[in-house]
């Protein structure tokens, strides 16, 4: 009996350390690869706890191996945009100013009831209230409401306001997101020009560079404060 209790304590401690090192995401915020690792860890942890014939090391070594796999995948996702899309996919717009995107719904295997339920959880009860709805890589739906119903009560005060806009990440961790660069109808020379306006010279030194439809840019170099710049070029029309 004492052996069984000791094994449970040891495995519990190892699993706790593994999850602490993996980060503090909630279950609903896990990326697909993190969710898979979580399921495997749970299964591996129960086997040496319940079966004393299994050497304890046979339970600990796979747990540590999974932790190392998690670190490797996380590192590659930080360094490679292509690998990040391969493992986690990318956010997909399912509602735009033109309405519900039926083709994207089919790609995600979602139906209208799924969207309606998610929007109700966000306190939106009509599709017409939504300017954009986006399915994030962790499966959650993010909604951007139309300006007329935002909490600022601009409509009540008769204040003219423009609709909310989406921004796109143009540079992520020193690498150009080429797909977004094409959508924004810009080129690398434009990116370099804006980076120089922000006081930097190399794209690889930029942590994040975003651009929205109004030409607002958020540029932050690594280990430096961010800067907000404005350009007359309107990117991201798609």
Would you kindly provide a brief summary of this structure?
This protein has 238 residues and is an alpha+beta fold. Helix content is 44%, strand content 18%. A hairpin with a 2-residue loop joins β1 and β2.
Structure keywords:
238 residues; alpha+beta; 5-stranded antiparallel beta sheet; 8 helices; 44% helix; extended
Q: In percent, how helical is the residue content?
A: 40-55%
Structural class: alpha+beta
Give the SSE order as H and E letters.
Answer: HHHHEEHHEEEEHHEEE
The rounded distance between the terminal residues' Cα atoms is 65 Å
β-strand number: 9
Tally of contiguous helical segments: 8
Low-confidence stretches are: 234-238
Q: Strand content of the residues, in percent? A: 15-25%
**Overall mean confidence score, pLDDT:** 80
Q: Let me know the largest β-sheet.
A: 5 strands, antiparallel
Spatial shape: extended
Question: What topology, given as strand order, has the largest sheet?
Answer: 6-5-7-8-9
Quaternary organization? single chain
What Rg, in angstroms, do the CA atoms define? 23 Å
Describe this structure in words.
With 238 residues, the chain is α+β, with helices and mostly antiparallel strands. The chain is 44% helix and 18% strand. It contains eight helices and nine strands. The strands form two sheets. The chain has a five-stranded antiparallel sheet with strand order 6-5-7-8-9. It has a four-stranded antiparallel sheet with strand order 2-1-3-4. A hairpin with a 2-residue loop joins β1 and β2. The longest helix is centred in the N-terminal third of the chain and has 23 residues. The C terminus is likely disordered.
């Amino acid at each position: 009996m004492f052996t069984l209790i000791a094994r449970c304590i040891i495995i519990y401690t190892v699993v706790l350390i593994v999850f602490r090192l993996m980060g503090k995401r909630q279950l609903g915020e896990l990326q697909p690869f993190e969710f898979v690792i979580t399921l495997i860890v749970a299964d591996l942890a129960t086997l040496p706890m319940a079966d004393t014939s299994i050497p304890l090391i046979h339970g600990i070594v796979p747990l540590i191996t999974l932790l190392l796999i998690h670190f490797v995948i996380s590192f590659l996702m930080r360094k490679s945009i292509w690998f990040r899309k391969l493992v986690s996919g990318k956010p997909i717009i399912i509602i735009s100013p033109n309405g519900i995107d039926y083709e994207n719904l089919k790609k995600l295997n979602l139906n209208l009831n799924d969207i309606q339920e998610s929007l109700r959880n966000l306190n939106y009860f009509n599709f017409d209230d939504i300017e954009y709805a986006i399915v994030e890589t962790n499966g959650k739906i993010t909604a951007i409401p139309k300006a007329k119903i935002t909490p600022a009560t601009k409509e009540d005060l008769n204040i003219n306001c423009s609709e909310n806009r989406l921004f796109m990440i143009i540079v992520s961790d020193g690498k150009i997101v080429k797909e977004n660069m094409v959508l924004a109808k810009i080129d690398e020379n434009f990116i370099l020009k804006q980076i120089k306006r922000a006081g930097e010279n190399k794209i690889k030194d930029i942590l994040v560079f975003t651009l929205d439809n109004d030409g607002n840019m958020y540029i932050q170099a690594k280990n430096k404060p961010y800067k907000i710049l404005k350009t007359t070029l309107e990117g991201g029309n798609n």
